[in-house]
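can u do me a favor
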């Protein structure tokens, strides 16, 4: 009985010598393997608009390509969303650490010296209240 899930043996996988001499066409030629960059360029149009617009930024696009290369290196099948989500979850902390390293941390500004109130005399020496002089535009 024929089983579609059974792996072919070496004899079945190779065409017989008689079939080759009978003028049968050779097996399809394998196209050169397409790189991640080429696949992403080809498939950008199929992505939703929001993602497509973000990929126009070269830094975001390069990060996307780098992650895809790492997934490919680890053997993730890009046709399986489940495998990609599993890989992302397993490497979540590592990816966040890399992203945080590229973005500088924002620090709170701390003013030194006494705080000037609105009704205090202006520090510029005009004799007016701060709210009527230098603090007018604030």
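np, heres the sequence
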């Amino acid at each position: 009985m024929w089983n579609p899930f059974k792996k072919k043996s070496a004899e079945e996988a190779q065409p017989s010598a008689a079939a080759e001499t009978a003028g049968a066409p050779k097996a399809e030629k394998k196209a050169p393997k397409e790189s991640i960059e080429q696949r992403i360029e080809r498939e950008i149009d199929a992505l939703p608009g929001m993602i497509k617009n973000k990929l126009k930024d070269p830094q975001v696009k390069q990060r996307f390509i780098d992650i895809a290369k790492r997934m490919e290196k680890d053997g993730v099948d890009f046709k399986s969303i489940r495998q990609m989500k599993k890989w992302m979850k397993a490497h979540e902390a590592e990816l966040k650490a890399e992203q945080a390293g590229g973005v500088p941390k924002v620090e709170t500004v701390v003013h030194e010296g006494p705080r000037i109130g609105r009704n205090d005399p202006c520090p510029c020496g005009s004799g007016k209240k701060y709210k009527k002089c230098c603090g007018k535009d604030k």
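The chain has a mean pLDDT of 75. hope that helps!!
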